[in-house]
């Protein structure tokens, strides 16, 4: 596999730096934030890159106001910003001072592993001064045509580019352990490691299921509020997606609980002990795994401001994903593992209920084709390209 992978987010971050004083780029550890930041540093003349996990770099910020003030004409890139939350107040002053000097855009790029504490600190201190960007894992357009390898291994670059499926699987198991034993405690969260791992694994077995805190609490022998707190943490760290229901008027009896997905398919498979394509296709989770993989890729490709949700009624109408685009269009999407898909009756009803402007069935085939006058069967990369074209 080619190790030189161009990230689409590079263009979006560079554009945001031309429109805002600063950018906060959030994503899980090892997802490629540092590589992207170093790439941007090489493109912006005289940019300053500091990794706050490096003691030599952190030492420069002992007197942060004075040091950053001396760098007023440079783009300052601060990696692992959650290690120094006290810098947010200093950065606010620096951004305002630069504005008074006439510099409005491209002042700071902050990188951090997502956490509620990081988001709270930055929103309190840098409100109105920064744009937020998310760096997800590698997606199907970035690694085309290796879609199935990406599905098996997931979007963490080191996992995807590993020399073998077995090496990739070992890397992902190591990442899970590091996340649970080192990264989460770093955020000041006091949760028993084994309890959180058991919940994460249970969510993997129930990939895409509705959140049922009472059921999970009985299995883990903790209270439902504790389950919700654990889920919140996994969502904040961008390890789990909480897909909310799409509501419409009209008296329908709608499912109101969110669905939970382990966001990275590679981590999902590692949690379940799935290390090869054969193991994946013989595992009961295969359909839900493909669905979660497709949903993550489509949300990653959608234009900024797109709202993603699902639609389900108690009578069986269902759309796996409803995208409400910034221009007001609604796209109803069904996900099928089959290479010969059909339109489920429940999807027809759901698409009508949400008043979908476009209707798609994503399948594992090679080319789009019409399933009916208003519904298209389409491979994942093709639908992603249509979304990217709207950006």
Task: Give a verbal description of the structure.
Helix content is 43%, strand content 16%. It has 391 residues and is an alpha/beta fold. It folds into two domains: 8-134, 3-Layer(aba) Sandwich (Rossmann fold); 147-388, Orthogonal Bundle (Arc Repressor Mutant, subunit A), CATH 1.10.10. The strands form three sheets. Strands 8-9-10-11-13-12 form a six-stranded mixed sheet. The longest helix is centred in the middle third of the chain and has 22 residues, at 165-186. It is globular.
CATH architecture tag of the largest domain? Orthogonal Bundle
Order of H and E elements: HEHEHHEHEHEHHHHHHEEHHHEEEHEEEH
Name of the CATH homologous superfamily of the largest domain: Winged helix-like DNA-binding domain superfamily/Winged helix DNA-binding domain
What is the tally of helical segments? 17
By CATH, the topology of the largest domain is Arc Repressor Mutant, subunit A
Percentage of residues in DSSP E strands: 15-25%
- Extended strand count: 13
Distance between the termini: 28 Å
Summarize the structure.
By secondary structure, this protein is α/β, with parallel strands linked by helices.
């Amino acid at each position: 596999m080619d190790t030189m992978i161009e990230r689409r987010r590079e263009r979006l971050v560079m554009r945001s730096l031309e429109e805002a004083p600063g950018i906060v780029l959030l994503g899980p550890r090892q997802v490629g934030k540092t590589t992207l930041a170093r790439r941007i540093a090489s493109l912006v003349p005289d940019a300053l890159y500091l990794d706050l996990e490096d003691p030599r770099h952190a030492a420069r910020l002992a007197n942060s106001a004075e040091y950053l003030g001396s760098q007023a004409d440079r783009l300052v890139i601060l990696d692992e910003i959650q290690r120094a939350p006290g810098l947010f107040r200093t950065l606010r002053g620096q951004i305002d001072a630069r504005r008074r000097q006439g510099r409005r855009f491209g002042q700071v790029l902050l990188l951090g592993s997502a956490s509620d504490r990081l988001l709270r600190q930055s929103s309190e201190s840098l409100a109105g001064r920064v744009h937020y960007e998310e760096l997800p894992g590698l997606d199907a357009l970035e690694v085309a045509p290796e879609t199935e390898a990406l599905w098996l291994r997931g979007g963490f670059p080191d996992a995807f580019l590993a020399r073998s499926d077995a090496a990739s699987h070992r890397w992902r198991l190591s990442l899970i352990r590091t996340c649970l034993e080192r990264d989460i405690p770093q955020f000041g969260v006091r949760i028993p490691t084994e309890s959180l791992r058991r919940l994460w694994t249970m969510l993997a077995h129930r990939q895409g299921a509705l959140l049922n805190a009472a059921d999970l609490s009985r299995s883990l022998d903790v209270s439902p509020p504790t389950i919700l707190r654990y889920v919140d943490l996994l969502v904040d760290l961008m390890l789990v997606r909480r897909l909310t229901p799409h509501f419409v008027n009209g008296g329908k009896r709608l499912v109101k609980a969110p669905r939970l997905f382990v966001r990275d398919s590679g981590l999902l498979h590692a949690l379940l002990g799935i290390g090869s394509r054969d193991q994946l296709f013989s595992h009961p989770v295969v359909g839900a795994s493909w669905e979660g993989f497709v949903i993550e890729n489509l949300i990653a490709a959608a234009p900024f401001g797109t709202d993603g949700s699902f639609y389900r009624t108690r009578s069986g109408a269902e759309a796996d994903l409803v995208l409400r685009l910034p221009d007001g269009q609604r796209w109803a999407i069904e996900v099928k593992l089959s290479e010969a898909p059909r339109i489920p009756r429940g999807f027809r009803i759901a698409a009508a209920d949400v008043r979908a402007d476009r209707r798609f069935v994503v399948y594992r085939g090679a080319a789009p084709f019409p399933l009916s006058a208003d519904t298209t069967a389409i491979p994942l990369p093709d639908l992603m390209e249509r979304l990217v074209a709207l950006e």
